[in-house]
Structure formats: structure tokens, C-alpha cells
Amino acid sequence: MPLDRKILRKTALALGFGFLVVLGFFLLLHYLHSNKGLLGFKISKGYISLKKIDYKFFKKGVLSYEIFADSLNYRSQKKNVIKLNMVEVYIYGKNKKPAFIITGKLGRLNSVSKDVIISGGVIIKSAKGACMKTGIIDYFAKDDKIVAPDYIKIKGKNYFISGNGLIFYIKKNIFILQKNVHFLSNNVSGVTK
Predict the structure, then answer these.
(1) What is the mean pLDDT of residues 64-75?
(2) What is the pLDDT of residue 147?
(3) Which pTM was predicted?
(4) What counts of helices (H) and strands (E) characterise the chain?
């Protein structure tokens, strides 16, 4: 009789464990198909999370820009938005070297238009030495244009410019400040006595 009780206990334990495994499997399938959260975590087929990314965008076979980020989150194909953290964007010039390097805390890449929004302590450094600082910028890949709607500071070797509403055409190397423009220059070599 004691042997039968041990077998009965082991069988009951094995069946109970098997039931829990099967139940867990069906709960997981349910949450994968229903796209609802389990204990505050969202489980979805359309979610991708990566660490340390390098994304390259080419125009007509030529490298146009490259994005480096500490992490990437892609939640849905319907929104076409890839969220980035600690972003660096290299915009390449005609000589295939970075003409501008843009850094910021957060970024959003539109996977269809390839436009990028960068925010949080944005710094744009030119290969020629100029430096721009602002809170948020939009980079439009098709037009090769940067738009900074807020206050921006631009510092070069011999000048300092500030204002609101920057529109910068990268290929033409032309920028427009729309409001509250202030210009200071310490270049006095052209002044004669």
C-alpha cells in the first residue's frame, strides 16, 4: 500500500505540472493574439527593440545620412515611426565625408519618408567648424533640409547668431532665421582707420 500512495502522489504532481505548462502556453498564445498587456508589459507581433543601432539611408546609390543610436523601438507598421534614444545623425556631403553631425537625446525616424525628428539638447556641428544648438529639429531627407522652429544659437569662428525659426538648405549651404535675429561678429579685419 505505501508504494501505491507514492506512485499516486508522483502521478498527481506530474499531471498538475503538465496542466500548468499547458495553461501557461495557452495564456501566452492568447496575449500574443489579443495584443493586450500582461502585468503591464505589452506583447505584440509588431514590436521590435534593439540596442546600439546603425541605420544607413542611400539616395541614388550614394550614402545620404547615417543614424547611430543607443536603442531603437519600433511599435507598429501603421504609424511608420521608429523611436530612437541618444541619437547621432551623420549627414554626408559630396566628398562622402560627414558634412554635419547632429546629436540629441531622442529621435523619431519615419520609416516611409525617411525624415528624422531629433529633440533634447540638439547640437549640429558643421565640418567647417560652425555649431548650432536648439531644442528640436526636423530633418527632411527628400529636400535635404533642416527646420528648427524654436530658438537657436549658431556659433562660428568669428561670429554668433541667434534667433527663431531656422530653415537650413544643406546642399545650397543657405540658412534663414525668421524672427528675433541677433548677429555679433568679432571680425574687424575689414575695418580701416
Answers:
(1) 78
(2) 93
(3) 0.67
(4) 1, 11
Q: Is the dihedral of CA 32, 34, 37, 39 positive or negative?
A: negative
Cell of 18: 503538465
**Separation between Cα atoms, residue 59 and residue 138, nearest integer Å:** 18
Q: Is residue 9 within a helix (H) or strand (E), and if so which, with residue range?
A: helix 2-34
- Cell numbers at 191, concatenated: 575695418
> What are the two backbone dihedrals, phi and then psi, of residue 34, each rounded to the nearest 5 degrees?
-90, -10
Which residues, other chains included, contact 6 with Cβ-Cβ below 8 Å and sequence gap of 6+? none
- What is the Cα–Cα distance from 165 to 149, expressed in whole angstroms? 4
For the chain, domains (ranges, CATH) are: 2-42 (no CATH), 48-185 (2.60.450.10)
What's the pLDDT score for residue 191?
43
Q: Which three cell numbers stand for residue 59?
A: 539616395
- Residue 137 has what pLDDT? 93
DSSP reduced 3-state for 33 = helix
